[in-house]
Amino acid sequence: AIRNVSRDASLIPCIGPASEGSLARCFILDPSSLAGTKNVVASVSIVDPEIGLQPNNVLSKEKFTTATKESDGNASQSTTATTPKKQSAATSISSAPQQSKSDAIQLQLLKQQLASETNLPSSPDAIFDALIQIGSLSDLSTALDLLSTATHLEEGMGIRGSTFHYRVVEHCEKRLDSASKAHATSNNPHLRALRIKIVYHKQILSAYDVLHNFEARHLATNMTAEANGAADADDSTPWMKEALGWIEASENVANDFPREIAAATHSMSTAALKFSTFAKSCMPLTAKDIAAIGEQDISVNKHPIHLIDSKRDRTAALVHIFRPLLKDIFVFKVVNNVFDALGLTKDCELLQLYFGEWFLSLPHKCWANTGLVVRWLQELVVHILKGEETEADDGIAEGKGRRILLGRLYQFCSSCDNLPRAFLLAATCRQAVALATKQRETKTYGKVLSADEVLPWDCLLRKLRVCLLITLRLSGVQLGSFPVTISNVDDGSIFSIYQWAARDELFLSHNHNEISSLEESCRNSSHSFDPSIEEGDEPARWGLLQQACQYRGNSMVLADEEPGSLLLYLSRFNDPIKLAAHRVLLLGEKWGKDPQSIKVLRDAVPALHFLQESCEEYQGAVTTAVCIELWQTRIRPVYRALLFGFNDVPELSEDIVAPLCLDSNWVRELSGVALVVLSLLAPTAGQSTTDPSAGEDHSSAVATMANVATFALQKLFGDDDDNENRDDTEIDIGNSTWPKTRDDIILRNLISRALPASPVSLEIHKAIVCATKLTDDLTSLSYCVPTFTGVFLQGSLFQNMSLPTEFSELQEEFINDVVLKKALRAEGPLIDQTELEELETLAYAWGVERTRLRAQFLLHMVDAGKDDMITELANMSSEQLDYPLAVEGGLEIACARLNRIIVELKRAKIFRSILAMLDAETCKWIKKEAEKAADHLITSAEYDIGEDDNFEWHSPPLSSTHAFVLRLLRMSSSIGDSESSQKSHSLSILSGSLRNAVQEHGELRDYDFDWIG
User: Fold this and answer.
1) Residue 13, phi then psi, degrees to nearest 5
2) In 10 A of CB 855, how many CB atoms?
3) How many CA atoms lie within 13 A of 597 on its CB side?
4) What confidence tier does 685 reach under pLDDT thresholds 50, 70, 90?
5) 604-613 and 512-524 are packed helices; what angle lies between their axes, rounded to 10 degrees?
6) Which residues, including other chains, have CB under 8 Å from residue 344's CB and lie 6 or more apart?
């Protein structure tokens, strides 16, 4: 009992429950006692309201002269303090709730002392004294866990090993014995919980001591030699040789490999494992675990202790637990002794999991030292086989399906994304299985064949070979949202092998013709082989694969004993249509990441045309699906941003795309690709018509499209029932190829969700795209399209829209402007029919007849002096060309041209004889018509085209004008227009007379008349 406290003792107030009135709970904290060997925190009951509740009240010796402390043994603990008589403070014995609070304070004090940053005295003795003062068994159980994982004991106080924790466990055992004697007949759950906790900690101590003793003996040997690969590589089997080859290839290809090595090497530091780290890596006992442990398990003193669920945290212990396997045969049993102490030797599945995680954490040069590793796995296999023999004798194994030896490691390798390490691990496991089963084969006289047991591992290694080939060949590219593993590839709904092959093709070239030639060469090559079957096991062949991963630059040329493209080794996936479809999608994806490189998007156009022209029954569905995806995800958002801003297109970066939208050349090139995509979607939308009600049958088109998609999926991927009934857990045996070609999840999804475009909506979108290509001024475009605000939205292409019922004045002005600009920019010997189709598409969407548009374009071309380019257009029939409009406008142009010639001839007296030959009335009419057209014809000298700086007008030769007039005469005669025929006839006579005069008067050539030709 403590009789006195120092003058510096403090009173810490704690307000009690309201049901107790003004009663306050207080505690005495005596710093002078804390500095000694005992920590005093005593509860005090104060009922004198004069003292009050002021924090940190300083109490003199006279105020507190007595403090008694009794063991709570569960027993109550109380402290009584008396004050002088002049004060009315009185003390009372604390009740059980008060004692519980006192124990909580003691536990909290222990936690503060174990903190790395604390002002409280913290030493091993002080920590132990704080533990002794904890009276509650439940708090003692908590303190036991707390002390086992306290890193401050080792890092801040210099405690080494488990000695201190042995002392803690010993104290807890004494308290348990004392409490058990006092409550021998009671069924106290706290006694049972503490007993189980003590057994748990004894197991941890036992396991740690085994490991610690090993590390203490071998610390003199520099363990970094393990990370430096002191021994020679184990290439005793072909699989081991191949594994080391893949490791070397990975080092040469993968950029992140050195960082992985550095991280793994760090885990192989020379420091011994700290006890707190080991305790933290063990799964703590929960109340549920304690309740589930039976009395028999407690008496056995060895219930299983698993490592913690966090893979990263438990690896810190695993690198030390399995470290003896990297030493020599004399410490080989240390690993098993550690797991035996933890009660895990019977859990072979868990041991395999731990082994796999440790194996992958090794520095890469340690992988070569697999001798003891194989030996440990071999003993594990023997243990499993003995267990199976016992079960067979007892009849337990009946009804069990096929199993794989070291099956947990088999699954581990199948789901491991670190493929070079997984391959070496699988090769190590195969070697261990082979050695163990050969012994059993000899023992059973061939009843059990070793070849059957290692066959699943052979198949697994071949699958890993394929995964390594793909990932290293396509290194630096994100191959999907999930890592490439055997299990993910087998899933069938995560990756597309066709996409990987298409990526490899694009690495080599973007040219469709070159890629088609490569595909054909791979199909006919005699050097093609499948690495997923036994023929790929030959060293020369897997060596070729490893070369193909490191040197892919010359893969367009197939030569003997030279590495080739992926298609040379994945010939089952050499499907031109599927590969072309994926190339289109990949090029669109690449362009989306770098929109400025419009050539990348143009490279997709030949592949799109190839899909359209294919003779396969399902090509239509594939083409439609790919075009819709390219339009929806890549092209459509750009046009929405171009016309309406970036508010509703979050998928685009305004900083990158906005400057490109101001580049007219970039927009024109994008529009060219967009028109190709929309044109390829036209067959799904049905026949185009000017009838505004054409969209009424769109719902039936949706049903038709669904049937087409179902048929295409059947042709492409076979019966869905086959895919649904397949067993993904079935083991591939023998020469079964892998991966399966049963499906392509990307194309399947695109085809399944494809919708037919609305014919009217399709024409409206094509018209707007044409408009953006034909003109840079889009300010008036919104007034020309009734449904303008609804275009280029996510679903606008598939929704019915309405065509304009009449041709508005704004639309006519817009079309006249773009037709004129198109004529001014036209170059070449003949008119580009594609450009003419763009104009026709725009005109059709706005209700303008194609014949009228062609006539307008013809007149602008002639007005610009490009007579040589209109031959094909001028020879069209009246059903294709608006003859009345062409004749009416053509006569104006002819009059303007001839009037300029006459005016120039009048300037010189020498040519009056020529003018006298011309009909005066005709010349007067020509002058009148030319003056009327002066404000809208380029031919007129008064007209200023100034909008297009690149155009320079030159007067066409007189012979071209005469030929044009003869065309007008033919057109007017064919439509029976006598008045126009008469005018055309008069012009033809006059232009003919001028032409003859030029030929007769050679002196005309001495004058700089550009119309002479």
Assistant:
1) -85, 150
2) 25
3) 11
4) low
5) 60
6) 304, 305, 306, 350, 351
Alpha-carbon distance 91 to 98, whole Å?
A: 13
Cis peptide before 739 (omega within 30 of 0): yes
- The C-alpha atoms of residue 846 and residue 772 are separated, in whole angstroms, by 15
Report how far residue 867's alpha carbon sits from residue 861's, in angstroms, rounded to the nearest whole number. 7
pTM to 2 decimals?
A: 0.78
Distance CA 529, CA 567 (A): 10
Residue bearing the bigger pLDDT, 547 or 96: 547
- Which helix or strand (DSSP H or E) is residue 342 part of? none
Token pair 């039936």 in the structure block, residue: 700
Three-class SS state of 687: coil
CB-count burial class (<10 Å; 0-12, 13-18, 19+) for 612: middle
Among all chains, which residue has been given the structure tokens 């503490």?
A: 194
Do residues 533 and 733 lie in contact, with contact meaning Cβ atoms separated by under 8 Å? no
CA gap 450, 439 in Å, rounded: 9
- Beta pairing partners, 27: 12, 43
Whether the per-residue pLDDT at 46 is higher than 90: the answer is no
Residue-wise pLDDT for 96-154, tens only, equals 455 555 667 888 888 888 887 777 777 889 899 989 988 888 899 999 999 999 998 98
pLDDT of residue 170: 95
Percent of the chain exceeding pLDDT 90 equals: 43
Distance in angstroms (rounded) separating the CA atoms of residues 521 and 607: 18
Q: How far is the C-alpha of 472 from the C-alpha of 476, rounded, in Å? A: 8
Radius of gyration of the chain (CA): 46
What CA dihedral angle connects 403, 406, 407 and 409, to 10 degrees? -170
Burial code of 381-398, b = ≥16 C-beta within 10 A, e = fewer?
bbbbbeebeeeeeeeeee
**Res. 394 pLDDT band, cuts 50 70 90:** low
Average pLDDT, the chain: 80
